[in-house]
Amino acid sequence: xxxxxxxxxxxxxxxxxxxxxxxxxxxxxxxxxxxxxxxxxxxxxxxxxxxxxxxxxxxxxxxxxxxxxxxxxxxxxxxxxxxxxxxxxxxxxxxxxxxxxxxxxxxxxxxxxxxxxxxxxxxxxxxxxxxxxxxxxxxxxxxxxxxxxxxxxxxxxxxx
Length: 160
Fold this sequence. Notes:
- The chain has 160 residues and is of the alpha+beta class.
- It has a single domain (23-149), classed as Alpha-Beta Plaits (2-Layer Sandwich).
- It has four helices and five strands; from the N terminus they run E-H-H-H-E-E-H-E-E.
- The chain has a five-stranded antiparallel sheet, covered by helices on one side.
- It is elongated and about 50 Å long.
């Protein structure tokens, strides 16, 4: 299978999507953050000198989705119509799951926007809690699903 971001000489280039049909396209991504009990308590109890960790992380993720084309070479700037960032807190497991959902009506998909959203949201969470615990880990970031476009729908199936 040929890579679409390489021309015939093997050089990187932006894919021409002008001939593609505009369709509704969505993508969901997820990242998991592992926290120590102290960091989890600081997050859950809102005891953070920098402010509301989840609200700030949510805004960072939304902003990142909108700026993906500025961050990732060869990504097309897209008219994003929806970005949702959600958090699931698991105190027993010491983890936070961040999910993103991004939607557009366009000629190319929003997978990179969804992945960028959870990445920056997770990094913001780390930044806001690192004073409590520098050993926080961001793990298992992946595309959960996508819809629309010529390649059709995709749903992540865990390896193994």
